[in-house]
Amino acid sequence: MLLILAFAMVLTVSIVVFIFNKLTSRNLLIVTEALRLFSRKQHEVRISKSRTDEFGDLFGAFNSMADSVQELIDADDLEREIDTLDESQIIDTDISGITQTIVSERIITDEEDDKDD
Predict the structure, then answer these.
(1) How many CA atoms lie within 13 A of 24 on its CB side?
(2) pTM value?
(3) Which of 43, 57, 71, 82 would you call most buried, defined as having the most Cβ atoms within 10 angstroms of its Cβ?
(4) Rounded to the nearest 10 degrees, how much is the dihedral formed by the CA atoms of 37, 39, 41, 44?
(5) Nearest 5°: CA angle at 54, between 31 and 64?
């Protein structure tokens, strides 16, 4: 009888360890795959599983890290675009703004002159 009880306990512990191992492995594989995709420049990847345990914290940390890296990449891309503008484009933009201001002031001035007459 004692031998059967010991065998049942070992079997129960083995099943619990097996299930725990499977659940842990699956969640680690999710994080590993997300990291692998992210490293292959698929920066939009996020982990959408919501959990309230330590794996949920890990998923959230990955998503926060991915958001921060994406913001840095976007800022760097914008800086590169600005650097590629040649000076003539910048000057043309400035002149257009000045011309618009001068035209606007002239219209106002002309309207004021019309009121004075």
Answers:
(1) 6
(2) 0.57
(3) 43
(4) 50
(5) 55
- Give, in degrees to the nearest 5, the angle at Cα 26 between 39 and 64: 45
3-class DSSP string for the chain: CHHHHHHHHHHHHHHHHHHHHHHHHHHHHHHHHHHHHHHCCCCCCCCCCCCCCHHHHHHHHHHHHHHHHHHHHHHHHHHHHHHHCCHHHHHHHHHHHHHHHHHHHHHHHHHHHHHHC
Residue-wise pLDDT for 60-117, tens only, equals 999 999 999 999 888 888 877 777 765 555 555 555 555 555 444 554 444 455 555 5
Return the domain boundaries, the chain.
2-84, 88-117
Region 28-42: mean pLDDT is 93
Asked whether the beta carbons of 70 and 81 are under 8 A apart, the reply is no
Q: What is the dihedral of CA 77, 78, 80, 83, to 10 degrees?
A: 180
First to last CA, the chain: 118
